[in-house]
Amino acid sequence: QVQLVESGGGSVQAGGSLRLSCEASGRTFRGYAVGWFRQAPGKEREFVSAISWSGDIAYYAGSVKGRFTISRDGDQNTVYLQMSRLKPEDTAVYYCAAGTIYCSGYGCYDLGPKYDYWGQGTQVTVPS
Fold it and tell me: What CA–CA distance (Å, rounded) separates 28 from 124?
């Protein structure tokens, strides 16, 4: 069992940056792929980014590619989402998720049902 806790959310002006953290407790992230998803009010949850269990491969939604960077620390306890050049449309609750994913590529890592564990979410607000 993995418990996930997100932190680092807040309100930031358009063009600013935030770094979200997803910390694992109960066990490390070793062997798990980790993804970030977000859900804006009135909208469905959408994929943001994911990183493979080895940390070698990262995936990004087209809307954040080039602005967001996902990484995981060497101790395998924390995964980060560095968000830069934030836009009002990035406003959402951001969730991290972990799972043992055996497929690869888009159409795999970007699918919520592939993940077994979810955090409670952290709010990111970028006022327009």
Answer: 25
Asked if 101 and 33 touch (Cβ cutoff 8 Å), the reply is yes
Which two tokens mark 92? Answer: 């959402």
Helix H, strand E, coil C: the string for 37-50 is EEECCCCCCEEEEE
**Average pLDDT per 10 consecutive residues for the chain, totaling 128 residues:** 94 98 89 95 96 91 98 86 98 96 85 93 97
Amino acid at 41: P
Evaluate whether 124 touches 91 at the Cβ level (below 8 Å): yes
The token pair at 90 is 């990035």
Residue found under tokens 């960077």: 69
The closest of 19, 10, 12, 37 to 98, measured between CA atoms, is: 37
CA gyration radius for the chain?
Answer: 13
The DSSP secondary-structure symbol of 113 reads: G
Give the Cα separation of 128 and 107 in Å (integer): 32
